[in-house]
Amino acid sequence: MKRIAIITSGGDAPGMNAAIRSIVLSCHDQKIQCIGFYHGYNGLLNDEYRYLSADLVAPIIQHGGTILKSARCQEMHQDEGLKQVANTLTKHKVDALIVIGGDGSFRGMMALQTYWSGNLIGIPATIDNDLACTDTTIGFASAVNTATQAIDKIRDTANAFERVFIVEVMGRHSGHIAFNVGLATGAESILSFENCNINSLDQVKTDLVAKIQSQKQTNQNGFVIVLAENLWPNGPLGLKKDLQDADKIESAVCVLGYIQRGGSPSPEDRILATELGIEAVRAAQESTGVMIGKVAGQVTRHCIIRATEQNKPVDQALRSAYHQISIGS
Ligand code: F6P
């Protein structure tokens, strides 16, 4: 093995830089050259790259974002794009490509297998934590920390004004962030894919209104609803209107948005990224089509197909914890 290429792809996640660093330093140790391509798969389409040295990556562990930039890439859905990416890898005599990203990025990797015979390794990095075969993905812990700190601040105003707050968190179509943040902040309500579906929204609304009214009778605290993005029709403003229409309940809306993707990675994410990066370099020399993960304290290798095709539901234990301590539910 002489040369490994790296890309960061899809939504950036805190800890991506720590993963790049770990790969480059491991390669340096094993006298393997590292090339970083910019802007995810687009860098491979456009031959936009730089060699990555140990000196360059040594000081980046604490930085959010990614020094390699990131992007989504529609061309990876077409044969022409896949062929072009394969050509670039061949031209640079790359032996293995390590993709740091989420499930969309891994699907691109699987499609590339048809056109390129080098080794393909995935490192799961997305704030959404929606990949199977790893307990957590790089970036998830940091996003949960950021959202928790933000909601703790919102809570002060919620309590001072005895106000209902609807706080939307990210997660695309999964509720890992919503449930973890909801529990960590003691949210009065968590509305996510795991406990609401499109057919039950009327019932959810009725229960929510009852819960808000019942809390008003018993204490003078604020009422924080943590809402998963893409769940409620018309988003948090839709829910605000529904509460107003249902029982004249006033609420304030706060969309946490991209602050959840940014900032310095938490220690957990830095350590996870470091461990997965080291194992990715080992795996790149022995196998292809695998995702490196960490399950029950052990660094693991799983077939990338399993990682992308299997669902990773929010832990039943977390869901039960919410129901057990959530007053009035
Ligand atoms: O996958 C990470 C994520 O931040 C999701 O939580 C969110 O739905 C999506 O990316 C937003 O994507 P974009 O930055 O392309 O709008």
From TrEMBL:
Domain of life assignment: Bacteria
Documented EC number(s): 2.7.1.11
GO molecular function (one): AMP binding
Entry-linked Pfam families: PFK (PF00365)
EC class of the enzyme, as a word: transferase
Broad class of the protein's primary localization: cytoplasm
Protein name: 6-phosphofructokinase
Organism: Pseudoalteromonas luteoviolacea S4054
